[in-house]
Amino acid sequence: MIWIDLENKLPTDNIPNWDPSAKTQQWVPWTQARWEAWLIKSQQLVNDLAVLDAAGKREERNALIDANSAHWGALKEWMLALSAEKCWFSEVRELYSHYEVEHFRPKKEAKALDGNVRDGYWWLAFDYMNFRVCGNVGNRKKGGWFPLKDGSLHSSFAAPCEESETRYLLDPVDEDDVALIAFDEEGKVIPMPGSSVWEQERVNATVKRLKLNEHVPLAEARRKIWQQIDKLINDFNKHKARCSAGNNPAAKAKLTEVRARIREMTHPTAELSAVARWCLLVRHDERLSRLVR
Fold it and tell me: Interior CA angle at 173 toward 183 and 66, to 5°?
């Protein structure tokens, strides 16, 4: 999972190319007029949904949401550009199947841990702050799953309080949620050491529901990243030792090469960069940790 600063981003912003070999600008910002038109249509759609909901016409309300899926789909290219075309949950580009704009809070119905269903967050169906990019593998499994902790406040159209809900699902636009994720050398997602019982429950529930460990190609890719970083660390320490007794141009050249590769693999645009960074940080070596700051 990677943190996306969605709150401070707009489709009108310039986004640097994530692929250095690209010959043209990968993301072409929207004009202000186009963005404002998108927002106006979103508000009109929510108004129409509210009328249907007030009349008790839930099926018609949900049908209207489905009929306008192209509206949120229009933001897919921008949202992928924000993450260097990586899934926000798995941090890979292709191993998690094709990518979709998903609704973090489900738009039509929300399912609790026990499978009970409550009405969805339909008023957020066209709110871009509720959109996330997720690979089909996890998104299909997630569906309307959005359990809240027992006793949690529950947001509604009449009394919105999303920020006060105590949710299980980790959110890639919440920096504190992303910080709860760690990895082991087998490529598995694990709770960050020192996490509370509740935080561990959230991590484990999210990982299970989104198949972040169950999807074998994804876990295997993480394991390979760990092995590559581990080898680079060993190379770094070996050649650093050779430089400690005096000038050694060959060893120094190798250190430069290793540093460059580590920086490349831990760069936010690299696939599974969070795994690479964690593998470095878990060594508690100041010389290595400095490379990812």
Answer: 115
